[in-house]
Amino acid sequence: MTQQLRDNAFALLSELSDHSVAPDALRIVSHSLLNLIDDFETDSLVSIGNALPWLAALVEIERGVELTAVSANLASRDALKVMTPMMVKRALSRAIVDGPRAASNELRHLAQMDAKLAQLSMMPPGHIRSELLSNVELLRLFCQLPRDENPIRRRFLKIMSTAVANADASLEVLAGLETSWNGGVISRTPGLADRSKRFEMSAVDHLRKNGYLVAVRAALAFGGSDRTGGLNEQLHLVPEFRNDPALEALAVALCETRGTAFNVLTGASSVAALSDWAEYLQGPCLELAESRDISIREATSYAHFALHLVNICDLVGHHPKFATERVRRTLMDIEDDVKEFVLTLHKDDSEMRSLSEWDDVRWARLDGRARVADRLARLQGRWRGGVESPPFGAAARLDEELVADVKRFLGDLDESAPVSTVLDSVLKNCTIAGAGIFAALSLNESIALLTTSIVRARGVDGIDVDEHFTLDFVALNRWLTNQTQPAVLQHLLSEIPYVDVLNGAEMRDGPVHLTVHPGENRMTVSFEPDERLKAVLTLIAADDTSAELRASLQEQVAAQLVPEEVETANGANI
């Protein structure tokens, strides 16, 4: 290497760099880069150039620069090809808690993953689908991609268009279980015992060795109640599934079942909602056994482990505070119930033919209102307390002290109207979307909302309450969460004479401002104030509203919620 080359390189670097940089420092850098080229050719400069922004990010973190600025700087220096600054910030926020070394490791990991995603984006669609589902880390990052105008991200999202928006948290749990025996996120879940954590890690290892883990990844990325159509077609485009129909059927069943067991746990659904999963175990799972040359019991166990892994990743990922031993055990009991039901069908003397019928028999051994009390208590958030061990052949249920007050309340109501009977006959076929609303309501208000919704559902075209249907309170729950005066809804519900309604009183149009929008096997309930009520609520929410004025406005709200001209046959306002 000639001295002339060294001088020219130094001069070039000096002209193109910030003039505040000391010449001696630039000379050292220049000579070091020339030595690098001499050993590894000029392409090594490109590699070093791509890495330097990430080195700058590490230095900025060490100096205490805000992560928002660190992530934005990476983007401004063209270090991010696919990922967004928000994705980088989110990852660094988790890693930096464990110290500088963890931040350094996370930066290295992010740089590698971004480069892999950029490289993958140039591949054919089938290759992209296959690679994403074979690498949980890439899949997790893909599920974080925003729907913006970046051409690379747009191509990814077009190819994998059915991915759900909330997949990242669950996939992070799976990534930790897949990539190391420290368990990742699950190792930082204090509510779970070490033995339980080892069980989950073993389940991952077991499914991976036997080729089923790709179906679990697909379920966490694409499954869930909010999923749009086209799932079957999308999964069929993945080579691993297209070439293995039995594995594809397992993936589809897991996607369609995702979240259902948790809904049963929280009271949003009855166990009958898992009928589709029971049908999979009775039918397509047989094909899984034949294709692997294993027994139906073994195939059922593999599918059972896969469903459990989907459920535990959702539990830890989305509800970490409630991921306790009792809740985990309750969730497993629900999974085991369906497995037990299906295995009984394989016996020649079995008379059971539906999961709903089987559940009816198990609850029949208890007090008549036990199932309703259990469901209502779960809806109000008491599922976090776990279940008690039931007698053999009976349904698992919440501890008696968690439901005792609900039973007493129902008993008092049943003296005037068949509240328990109506709720039991309809709720067993009903799934509740937005069920979190009931945790914010009293027991009396919850029953008022349920009974009046059910009565109105019975008169809606397209809904058969004797078959599976959905009551959708998502919009109502959102309004209650964002509304500065949640007492408005509570006041409205407290004025509903639902006992009279159940005894045959005319309901007319239902509670004022509480409207329904029917759909196919679905009824959406929402709160829609008129312009006058909306204006009053806005005034109440204002920071500068005096206490005296607020009290006067609240009286106006109460009057508008129960106007005198709307009366039922028994003289009560609803």
Estimated radius of gyration: 29 Å
* Amount of helix: 55-70%
Q: How many E strands?
A: 6
Structural class, from helix and strand content? mainly alpha
The backbone outline, from C-alpha atoms, is globular
Biggest beta sheet attributes: 4 strands, mixed
For the residues shown, what is the average pLDDT? Answer: 82
| Oligomer description | single chain
Q: Name the strands of the widest sheet in spatial order.
A: 3-4-6-5
Distance separating the two termini: 92 Å
Regions with pLDDT < 50 over 5+ consecutive residues?
A: 563-574
Number of helices: 30
Our estimate of the beta-strand percent is: under 5%
Question: What this model shows, in words?
Answer:
The protein has helices spanning 3-16, 23-40, 43-62, 67-76, 85-95, 100-120, 125-134, 136-142, 151-159, 168-179, 194-209, 213-222, 231-236, 239-242, 245-257, 260-266, 275-282, 284-292, 296-318, 325-345, 355-364, 370-379, 400-414, 419-427, 443-457, 474-482, 487-494, 498-502, 531-541, 547-561, and strands spanning 387-388, 397-398, 430-433, 469-472, 514-519, 522-527. With 574 residues, it is mainly alpha-helical. Helix 1 crosses helix 2 (23-40), helix 12 (213-222) packs parallel to helix 15 and helix 29 (531-541) packs antiparallel against helix 30. The chain is globular and about 100 Å long.
